[in-house]
TrEMBL record:
<keyword id="KW-1133">Transmembrane helix</keyword>
<feature type="transmembrane region" description="Helical">
    <location>
        <begin position="12"/>
        <end position="32"/>
    </location>
</feature>
<dbReference type="Pfam" id="PF13346">
    <property type="entry name" value="ABC2_membrane_5"/>
</dbReference>
<keyword id="KW-0472">Membrane</keyword>
<protein>
    <recommendedName>
        <fullName>ABC-2 transporter permease</fullName>
    </recommendedName>
</protein>
<keyword id="KW-0812">Transmembrane</keyword>
<dbReference type="InterPro" id="IPR025699">
    <property type="entry name" value="ABC2_memb-like"/>
</dbReference>
<feature type="transmembrane region" description="Helical">
    <location>
        <begin position="38"/>
        <end position="61"/>
    </location>
</feature>
<feature type="transmembrane region" description="Helical">
    <location>
        <begin position="115"/>
        <end position="137"/>
    </location>
</feature>
<feature type="transmembrane region" description="Helical">
    <location>
        <begin position="186"/>
        <end position="206"/>
    </location>
</feature>
<feature type="transmembrane region" description="Helical">
    <location>
        <begin position="82"/>
        <end position="103"/>
    </location>
</feature>
<feature type="transmembrane region" description="Helical">
    <location>
        <begin position="146"/>
        <end position="166"/>
    </location>
</feature>
Length: 216
């Protein structure tokens, strides 16, 4: 299990210089845009891209065929990938907190508020991963890329539709009041965290079933 996780981490380290330069660019851009939260959002995008890169590398080097010859159960291979998602989600959240805090301090913004918003956004990572991983196991990396793009477009479209539907209604006033209330924000974050855990758990079960039926 440890070896499988390290394999993926080493795979990411191959392109670590690219990621470091990208993160530095995001910090500078976030400062110029006077938006510390921008860094957190883009970190999520970078993470999602790295997950796709791992699957792409597995396909290119025929890793699944090689893994099938090792004394590893298919369930173990899938579990290692999901544990990596959890570890990286925590790592990205901590990194985002530090970078957002520094950017907010430089901009004389509310550091605690900006960090809370950015770290809360990282809850989306397990949800996105929980959706995209079974799709890749089932349909492959190329079709997974299409779903990846759709996952980033869909929330924007849905939010715009909801905004148009509830605009001027009591629901809009109630939602604004909830978002402005610190306790309300905690409730929303708590619910989102619960959903992310549920999505990842269900996704893991589905991925194990899909991967177990594959022949390499």
């Amino acid at each position: 299990m440890k070896g499988l996780i390290l394999k993926d981490i080493y795979g990411i380290r191959i392109t670590q210089k690219t990621y470091i330069l990208l993160f530095l660019f995001l910090c500078i851009f976030g400062y110029i845009m006077k938006s510390p939260g921008y860094v957190g959002v883009m970190c999520i995008v970078v993470f999602a891209t790295s997950i796709l890169s791992l699957f792409n590398a597995d396909q290119y080097y025929h890793w699944d065929t090689y893994a099938a010859s090792l004394p590893l159960g298919k369930k173990t291979v899938v579990r290692a990938r999901y544990l990596l998602v959890i570890v990286m989600s925590v790592g990205i959240a901590l990194f985002t907190a530090v970078i957002t805090g520094i950017t907010a301090a430089l901009l004389d913004a509310d550091v605690a508020k900006e960090i809370f918003s950015s770290v809360s956004a990282c809850i989306i990572i397990p949800i996105y991963s929980g959706i995209i991983i079974p799709v890749i196991y089932k349909l492959g990396v190329e079709k997974g890329r299409v779903v990846f793009v759709m996952l980033f477009l869909a929330p924007t479209i849905v939010m715009l539709l909801i905004k148009d539907i509830i605009q001027g209604t009591r629901m809009e006033s109630a939602l604004i009041g909830l978002l402005q209330n610190p306790n309300g924000k905690m409730i929303i974050v708590g619910m989102a965290l619960a959903v992310s855990i549920l999505v990842l758990a269900v996704s893991y079960v589905i991925s194990v079933k899909i991967y177990s039926r594959k022949e390499f």
